[in-house]
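Run log, item B.
One chain of 203 residues. Sequence copied directly from the ordering sheet:
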Amino acid sequence: MFMRSVLIVGCIVLVALLSGCMRIPLGSLWALKQFSFETFEPATLRLAMQLPQGVALKSGSLVVDSKIKREGEPLVEHHFVLHESKDRNDFIGLPPVDAAQGRWVVLKFDADEAARIRAMRQGLAARKTADAASGVKGKNSVEIGAAPKLCRTGAAVNGSAKVSGALYWEVDKGYVKVLRETSLDDLLKDMDDSKDVAAMPVC
């Protein structure tokens, strides 16, 4: 039921920033393979996005959706919210960004959301153990994903401006780059073919 792969990182905490795994830097793949959904601490996780001038994250948050599918049972859905951090310590380790290139936005789970994630994970583990003990077999899956809702702050937005992303989940690893520099136009098209800078809503 649990998945250990770069894909789960792409779905969980890449949080689909993006275009998925195609834009993960090759140099980051080994570090990302060490990410474990079973053991990572939600309160420690940080998702950083470098956003161009004139671009912001709507409501300063990102909703992560979880869908648990078990054969013969109703779909179970959970929704967890990453909130924008104002703590300067959360920006330590991120490369400097010139003001003309935009700014870093760091997202994290608050204590309540982190507790909910741990509870969901414990429930999955308990169910997995119970199924194994009883010999129950079936098609089960966990799907986790999200898409950032970007908006314009009012300033002119350059579609060729670069966006990048990084993930932090362990002190000894620091921030690991999970999205190589990608133009805003390309990122928007990756998320929705019909989207472009002109179609971005005003914050």
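Observations after the first pass:
- Helices lie at 6-12, 29-33, 111-134, 184-191.
- Residues 6-199 form one domain.
Flagged for discussion on Thursday.
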